Amino acid sequence: MDPPAPELDEGQDVQGPKPRGLDREEVRGDDPPGLGPEELRPRWAPPAGSRTEAGVYVELVSNRRRLQAVVQQMQEVSRRAAEILIEEATAATSRQDTARRRSAAAR
Fold first, then answer.
1. Fewest CB atoms within 10 Å of the CB: 4, 52, 73, 103?
2. Contact yes or no for 85/77 (Cβ under 8 A)
3. Whole-Å CA distances, 2 to 5, 47
4. Sequence-ordered list of residues with C-beta below 8 angstroms from that of 40, at least 6 positions apart, any chain
5. 29-60 burial, b for 16+ CB within 10 Å, e for fewer?
6. Sign of the CA dihedral 8, 10, 13, 14?
7. Which pTM was predicted?
């Protein structure tokens, strides 16, 4: 069985929608706890006057090239440091060999 339908009063005063839709003050209330929609934009929304996607891509490519240049410099410094360490180790070994020979010759 269906529930009874509400009885409508033909003479009841009903207001139609406002021309622009809902009244903002009515929706937000008289004392909103925070900023209204015109004062607060969503976190994901880009800031006004932000770069275009193409500008972001150009910056990304530029940053990648700078990063590659830094990595290349670091590799060169590491290579040179390895060469210096090998030279020092070779020189130390050579000095030790010379000292051993002198010690053996002195006996």
1. 4
2. no
3. 9, 54
4. 34
5. eeeeeeeeeeeeeeeeeeeeeeeeeeeeeeee
6. positive
7. 0.41
